[in-house]
Design a protein that fits this description.
The protein has 168 residues and is mainly alpha-helical. It contains 8 helices and 2 strands, in the order ααββαααααα. It has a two-stranded antiparallel ribbon. The N and C termini lie far apart (35 Å).
């Protein structure tokens, strides 16, 4: 699976052992090494069951971004670039969106910078319109990028009828 290969490569570019995971609040300190391992495990199994649990309470706790958020955004983008099944893409787009919009502006900004690297993947998701959910997540992600306002407006005019009612 192409997504799995890309995730393994991206995971190797980060020092996960040196990143404190969000699940380690309190006296026990845990590294974030389990985050890429969990994503790889999910992609090796049934990727349709990806969901967001591998991120929740690790890279993000409610709207609070934790230390692994930026590296986790990189993993999500790598997996998305591998063109996994559409349900998985929806989950990955959602993850990129929530990590790019967290309460800690510096971390959210760094996550948004990572997300910007996949801008054409999001436009392709809009154009393909395989599911309303994935297209909506791609649209919301692009809407958070000020520099995409003009291009997104042009895409919006063409693809408006395919978008969920609240995005028309």
């Amino acid at each position: 699976m192409k997504a799995l290969d890309l995730v393994r490569i991206e995971a190797g570019l980060h020092d996960w052992a040196a990143i404190e995971c969000g699940c380690s609040w309190g006296p026990n300190r845990y590294s974030a090494e389990h985050i890429p391992l969990e994503l790889i495990r999910l992609l090796e199994g049934d990727p349709e069951e990806l969901g967001t649990d591998w991120v929740e309470n690790h890279a993000r706790i409610q709207s609070n971004l934790m230390d692994p958020a930026v590296a986790t955004a990189s993993l999500a983008l790598a997996a998305l670039a591998g063109r996994p099944p559409v349900g998985v893409r929806q989950d990955l787009l959602y993850i990129l969106g929530v990590l790019s919009a967290g309460e800690q502006e510096d971390i959210a900004g760094a996550c948004l910078d990572v997300a910007r690297q996949g801008v054409w993947l999001y436009y392709e998701e809009l154009a393909a319109f395989e599911t309303v959910g994935a297209s909506a997540e791609a649209y919301e992600l692009l809407a958070g990028m000020d520099e995409q306002a003009e291009r997104l407006a042009a895409y919006h005019r063409v693809y408006r009828d395919r978008l969920p009612h609240d995005l028309r």
